[in-house]
Amino acid sequence: EVVGNDIVKDMFYACYKVLSISHKVIIKGTKSFTNDLSGMQAFYTWCTKRNSKPESNLVFVMEATGVYYENLAYFLYERDCLVSVQLAQKIKYYAKSCNLKTKTDKVDSKMIAEFGIEKNLSGTELWTPPSKSFKMIRDLSREHTSLKEACSTAQSQLHALQQAHSVHPRVIALKQQQIEFYKQQEEAVKQELLLLVKEDKNLFDKMENITSVKGLGFITVIKILAETNGFLLFRNIRQLVSYAGLDVIEKESGSFKGKTKISKKGNARIRAALYMPAMTASVYNSNLKTFYNRINEGRNEKRKGLIAVMRKLLILIYTLWRKNEAYIINYNMNLNAVKS
Q: What is the pLDDT at residue 336?
């Protein structure tokens, strides 16, 4: 028994489906609810009335779209319900395979429920919320990003003011004070993040391993971990790369050959966090510099090599986190030396 949920800001649409003994899919109901506490309570009651076999594994399936799904996911998890949060790209590809031509909240909820029944979700497919400290880390890392963007905007405005004709000195002074405030807040958030990480020895040790890679600093790594929930949603590198929007898409048909580019259909925060580290790594990390130059060989535009380095860094963070190992610069050379 599966309940598919299509969630937006103010409401969500639910579809309750059951796979019978004869392998026939039966719809027990579809209904919309407000995306607040009263709506969730009404939804829970609605589902309970339709669950004829409480001992059966009723699974609630939803997409990981922004933050709108979180309240419902936590609400259900706290009531010992089985919750499955799926990557938006996975649901999208499933919808394409179903050849759906109509797209509404009601249709999407039915499709998500169908996905849950077909995949027979269990085990690692079920959602487990991050710890309170990890959620705090995510919130703080996003606030750091917000402050950094605000500071960058203010610096651009200051530059424009300084170049403009006859701007009052007080206006420039106020803008400088604003920039200084943003920088102080950035540093304060960074120190708070550092304290939180140090409180968890396992997390701190893993961070030490990853930040030994040239180009990967503390803030970059913590942002990647925060946006991926410590990689809990991912079972392989392909899923992670797709989630970050760094997967390559090609368009070819007969003699037509379109441009090869990244999808950008994923978490933009991850791509933003990796951009500057990739630029640094392509200059100072010997392995990635060689890789960057090889990708860009014979190309006027260097962007493709930079994106490839971003993808490499993301995979490297994932691998070191999973294996809980220190970074070895010349891994293959060292491995051959041991064998000999």
A: 40
